[in-house]
C-alpha cells in the first residue's frame, strides 16, 4: 500500500507542469508512501541465469555499448569538492579511471567521441575513463544486484520538490525554501541503494541543515540529490523534463561530432513507424500540434528545456 502511494505521488509530479494542483496531491500521497528504507521496492534478482540483473545482463552481452557519462560523474565530483557529498556513491557506482586527471578520486566519465577535456580544463589528459562498478559491469560480479524501483529516498525527494513548488511557484532554482528542508534532509540521512547478495546496500548519512556542509533546499539541490540517488532509474528523465535540472547538454548530432546537437533533449518517446503504419488510432501529432515522430514534447510536460553546450558559464552545467 505504501508503494502504491509513492507511485501515485510520482504520477502527480508527472502532471504538475500543467496542473499545479498536483503538487499538494503529491505531498499527501508522499506522506502515505514508503516511510523507511526497509520498505524500498526492489526488483528481485539473483545469480541464477534467469534471475540476473537486467543491466548486468546487458553489459555482459554487449560490453562497451554504454559507459558512465560525464554529467553524473562531474555532478558527484562537484558535490564531493563542495563537501555536501561523500565518496560512497561514486565508489559504488563506478571504478576510477587510470589517470588522476579525473580528480577528485580519479573518476572521469565519457564525453562524445571520447572528448577528454571538459569545460574549465577538467579532464583526463591520458584519455582514460571510469567504468561501471562490478555490480552491473556484466563480468566480475554474480549479477544478483536487486535494483531499486521506488524508495523512501525518492518519496522524500518528491515531497521536498512538491513543497518547494507550493511555497515558491515563481522562484529561481537557487531559491532556498525552508519548508522543503526536512524532506531533503531525510533523504540524505537514509541513503540506501538496492541489495547485493540479498544484503541491503547503505551509504553513510549526509549532513542535515544544522550541520556543517549542509545542503540547502533549493530546487537545484533537490533535483541533483534525486539525480544522483536514482542512478539507473529512468524517472530522472521525467524530473529533467519538468524542471530542466540538472543542466544537461543534448547528444551530438552525429557520432563524429564533439559538441552537443542543436535539438533539445527529447521530451517523449516517439511511436514506432510500424505502430503508426498498423494502428489507425495512433495520433500523428500531440495535443500541442507537434509531430510525435520527431523530437517532441509530452502534453503533460509541454515546455522544452534550453539547449545547452559544454562551454556554458553557468555553474549548474558540467
Compose a concise summary of this entry.
The protein is mainly α and 318 residues long. Helix content is 32%, strand content 6%.
| Average predicted confidence as pLDDT | 85
| Cα end-to-end separation | 39 Å
Number of strands: 6
| Radius of gyration using CA atoms only | 20 Å
Assembly context of the chains? single chain
- Side-by-side strand order of the widest sheet: 1-4
Question: Are there runs of 5+ residues with pLDDT below 50, and where?
Answer: 312-318
Principal-axis shape equals globular
Number of helices: 10
Sheet having the most strands = 2 strands, antiparallel
Structural class: mainly alpha
Q: Give helix % range.
A: 25-40%
How is the topology of this model organized?
Elements: H1 2-15, H2 22-31, E1 41-42, H3 54-61, H4 70-82, H5 88-93, E2 94-95, E3 131-132, E4 148-150, H6 152-167, H7 181-189, E5 191-196, E6 199-203, H8 219-229, H9 235-243, H10 273-278
Antiparallel strand pairs: 1-4, 2-3, 5-6
Helix pairs in contact: 1-2, 1-6, 2-6, 6-7, 6-8, 8-9
Architecture overview:
The chain has 318 residues and is mainly alpha-helical. It has helices at residues 2-15, 22-31, 54-61, 70-82, 88-93, 152-167, 181-189, 219-229, 235-243, 273-278, and strands spanning 41-42, 94-95, 131-132, 148-150, 191-196, 199-203. The chain has 10 helices and 6 strands, in the order H-H-E-H-H-H-E-E-E-H-H-E-E-H-H-H. A two-stranded antiparallel ribbon has the order 1-4. A two-stranded antiparallel ribbon has the order 2-3. Strands 5-6 form a two-stranded antiparallel sheet. Helix 1 (2-15) packs antiparallel against helix 2 (22-31), helix 1 (2-15) runs parallel beside helix 6 (152-167) and helix 6 runs antiparallel to helix 8 (219-229). The longest helix is centred in the middle third of the chain and has 16 residues, at 152-167.
Amino acid at each position: 500500500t505504501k508503494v502504491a502511494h509513492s507511485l501515485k505521488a510520482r504520477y502527480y509530479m508527472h502532471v504538475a507542469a500543467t496542473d499545479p494542483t498536483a503538487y499538494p496531491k503529491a505531498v499527501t500521497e508522499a506522506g502515505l508512501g514508503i516511510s523507511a528504507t526497509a520498505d524500498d521496492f526492489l526488483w528481485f534478482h539473483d545469480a541464477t541465469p534467469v534471475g540476473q540483473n537486467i543491466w548486468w545482463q546487458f553489459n555482459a552481452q554487449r560490453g562497451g555499448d554504454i559507459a558512465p557519462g560525464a554529467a553524473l560523474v562531474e555532478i558527484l565530483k562537484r558535490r564531493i569538492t563542495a563537501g555536501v557529498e561523500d565518496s560512497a556513491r561514486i565508489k559504488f557506482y563506478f571504478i576510477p579511471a587510470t589517470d588522476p586527471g579525473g580528480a577528485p578520486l580519479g573518476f572521469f566519465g565519457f564525453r562524445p567521441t571520447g572528448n577528454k577535456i571538459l569545460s574549465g580544463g577538467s579532464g583526463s589528459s591520458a584519455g582514460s575513463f571510469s567504468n561501471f562498478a562490478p555490480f552491473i559491469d556484466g563480468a566480475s560480479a554474480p549479477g544478483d544486484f536487486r535494483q531499486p524501483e521506488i524508495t523512501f529516498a525518492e518519496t522524500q525527494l518528491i515531497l521536498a520538490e512538491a513543497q518547494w513548488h507550493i511555497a515558491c511557484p515563481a522562484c529561481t532554482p537557487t531559491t532556498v525554501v525552508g519548508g522543503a528542508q526536512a524532506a531533503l534532509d531525510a533523504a540524505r540521512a537514509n541513503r540506501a541503494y538496492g541489495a547485493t547478495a540479498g544484503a541491503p546496500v547503505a551509504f553513510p548519512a549526509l549532513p542535515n541543515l544544522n550541520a556543517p556542509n549542509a545542503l540547502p533546499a533549493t530546487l537545484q539541490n533537490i533535483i541533483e540529490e534525486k539525480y544522483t540517488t536514482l542512478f539507473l532509474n529512468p524517472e530522472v528523465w521525467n524530473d529533467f523534463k519538468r524542471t530542466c535540472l540538472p543542466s544537461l547538454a543534448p547528444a551530438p548530432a552525429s557520432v563524429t561530432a564533439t559538441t552537443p546537437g542543436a535539438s533539445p533533449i527529447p521530451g517523449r518517446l516517439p511511436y514506432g513507424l510500424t505502430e503508426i503504419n498498423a494502428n489507425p488510432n495512433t495520433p500523428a501529432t500531440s495535443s500541442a500540434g507537434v509531430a510525435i515522430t520527431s523530437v517532441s514534447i509530452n502534453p503533460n510536460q509541454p515546455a522544452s528545456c534550453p539547449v545547452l553546450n559544454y562551454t556554458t558559464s553557468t555553474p549548474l552545467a558540467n
